[in-house]
Structures are given as structure tokens and as C-alpha cells.
Amino acid sequence: MKYISTRGESTPLSFSEAILTGLARDGGLLVPEELPDYSKHYQSWRELSYQDLAFEIVEPFTNQEISRERLKKIIQQSYSSFTHPEITPLTHYSQYSLLELFHGPTLAFKDIALQLLGILWISWISQISWISGISWISWISWISWIS
Fold it and tell me: Exposed (0-12), middle (13-18) or buried (19+): which is 33, by Cβ within 10 Å?
């Protein structure tokens, strides 16, 4: 699976290139060329934990550039700082239901995606040899401080 720009003027990128690049070179957002069909999995996924469901949804987008085991660990780590065991619990109030998106470390809905994206990014960047041991330790300390 490749990732293309919403503006259509950039070369398609791999999963890891898209994670490390952020925005497309033409200023567009990077989106997958195609979307997986999950329709036959809906019933079997109903009882999965948030982390297991996240794995099933995200894994096809990785194009096997990251091992299944490593991706599972990254997903577990990404949501380990959330304060509710269900990550995004659904609370029912009379005739309404409310999806709680505030149990992450910054108490904001953005934690749902950015915790995973940040750890994926750190995972790839840590493999780049130009970061020396001491600068990597300093950088990780800084990242830990801001989270």
C-alpha cells in the first residue's frame, strides 16, 4: 500500500516514508491509495480490546514494513498511559451515548491518534544511525518531559 497526496502532485510513499515525512512535499495530506475492506470482520471484532482492535485496523496500512509483534508492542505502549481501561469508553445517558475521548495523557481527543503516531515515529527514528547515543538519550529525555 502506498500513500499519496491529497493534492496529487507528490510521488507515492511507503508506510515508513509517510510516517517520517508528515505532510506530502506538495503540502497535501498523505492518505492511503486504497482502503481495506473490514466489513467481514465487524462481528468477530466486537469483543476485542481497544488495543487489539487498533492492531487489526492499523496492521494492513503498514504494508508489512513493521513486524506484527513489534506493532502490537507499539500499540500497547501507545495506550498504556490512558487512565481508563477501555481507552475510549462509551457512556450511555438516557437516549444518548457519549464516546469519551479525554482519557489520554493530555486529556484531549488528539491523544487517540497522536500517541500511536508519536511512538511509531520514535520507533523509526531510533533506528537511524546519525543519532549518537548521547544525543538520543537527550532527545528521549526531552520527549518524556513534554509528554
Answer: exposed
Which residue's entry shows cell 546519525?
A: 130
Q: Which residue has the cell 471484532?
A: 45
Mean pLDDT to the nearest integer, 114-131: 76
How far apart are the C-alpha atoms of 67 and 116, rounded to whole Å? 15
- Confidence label for 121 from pLDDT (cuts 50, 70 and 90): confident
Q: Which residues are catalytic?
A: 110
Distance CA 63, CA 80 (A): 25
111-131 as b/e, with b when 16 or more CB fall inside 10 Å?
bbebbbeebbbebbeeeeeee
Kindly report the pTM of this predicted structure.
0.80
Alpha carbon 96 to chain centroid, angstroms: 29
Dist. CA 28–CA 18, nearest whole Å:
12
Task: Give the pairing of strands 30-32 and 90-93.
Answer: unpaired
